Amino acid sequence: MGYKSMWESGDPRIAADLRPDTPHPARMYDYYLGGKDNFPADRAAAEKALAANPEFRTTARANRGFLTRAVRCVAGLGVDQFLDVGTGIPTAGNTHQIAQAVDPAARVVYVDNDPIVLSHARALMAGSGPGRTTVLRADLREPAAVLEAVRAEGLLDFSRPVGLVLAAVLHFLRDEDEPYRAVATLLAALPPGSHLVLSHGTADFIPAAVRDRVTGVYDKATAPLVGRSREQVREFFDGLELLEPGVVTVPLWRPEGEPAPGAERVSMYGAVARKI
Ligand SMILES: C[S@@+](CC[C@H](N)C(=O)[O-])C[C@H]1O[C@@H](n2cnc3c(N)ncnc32)[C@H](O)[C@@H]1O
């Protein structure tokens, strides 16, 4: 990527925060996608998850494809500002690049609670194009604090529609973290015409024994993995107008070609909806 991250720079504050010996979901996801921003503990945990469910890689890639098509769709509807919570380590086709390819002036605020994501994302944003992009550290489990940080930063205009992106992040919130309240709190701050882009892992298509092995791996990581059923994922969209085709496995959301065999059993649901 042609930049020196804070991690590589050896900044002791970042190093202390990184907890390289504990697997981080963002770095495991980076490994599934073939990235290099991960430590041995992340790779070992990711390999265990892959041994339990070899589909993880396909699912991660399918999710990135969904993110691209969904953000492009929302930007194509005229939404020119995005709040992306659970950014992930930058890889090919990040939200700001997708949105700014449609509208070069689009503004994107990224929010993540993982320091490695922040260091990489900040370095990447520094070289971004005419649209404005920024990255903040906050936790989705505290949605009011997310909104406060975003408002304080001042890049988004909350009187105009916003694309709220929650891609492959809500499955890191346990029920007691109140994921539905988090989504509702963020949406309540946005005006009608805003859109929600959401994807979420599921165990609907895998045997219970496989699910238990995978959750066992994430229980030792910095965040657990909580698969939810199609109906539970649909509930995140309560009160919104779902765009066609509704809640489907991610490769089946407006595919651009013939979906690969088994697309209807990929372990991630996704949908886009409009606030009315
Ligand atoms: C699997 S990655 C998804 C990245 C990207 N959104 C995508 O769909 O490709 C999940 C991201 O969510 C972040 N995350 C997990 N729990 C979070 C929380 N409670 N608050 C904010 N970010 C969180 C992780 O650090 C990671 O970067």
Please explain how this structure is put together:
The termini are far apart. The chain has ten helices and eight strands. With 276 residues, it is of the alpha/beta class. It has helices spanning 12-18, 25-32, 40-52, 56-76, 95-102, 115-126, 143-153, 179-188, 208-219, 230-234, and strands spanning 81-85, 107-112, 133-137, 163-167, 195-201, 240-242, 248-249, 268-275. The protein is globular and about 45 Å long. Residues 1-14 have low confidence and may be disordered. Strand 4, helix 8 and strand 5 (195-201) form a beta-alpha-beta unit. The chain has one domain (12-275): Vaccinia Virus protein VP39 (Rossmann fold, 3-Layer(aba) Sandwich). Strands 1, 2, 3, 4, 5, 6, 7 and 8 form an eight-stranded mixed β-sheet that branches. Helix 3 packs antiparallel against helix 9 (208-219). Bound molecules: S-adenosylmethionine (SAM). S-adenosylmethionine (SAM) binds next to helix 2 and helix 4.
Rg, Cα atoms, Å:
18 Å
Shape from CA axes? globular
**Biggest β-sheet: count, sense, barrel?**
8 strands, mixed
CATH topology-level fold name: Rossmann fold
Structural class: alpha/beta
Strand content: 5-15%
The CATH homologous superfamily name equals Vaccinia Virus protein VP39
Brief sketch in words of this structure:
This protein is α/β, with parallel strands linked by helices and 276 residues long. Helix content is 39%, strand content 15%.
Annotate the secondary structure layout.
Elements: H1 12-18, H2 25-32, H3 40-52, H4 56-76, E1 81-85, H5 95-102, E2 107-112, H6 115-126, E3 133-137, H7 143-153, E4 163-167, H8 179-188, E5 195-201, H9 208-219, H10 230-234, E6 240-242, E7 248-249, E8 268-275
The structure holds S-adenosylmethionine.
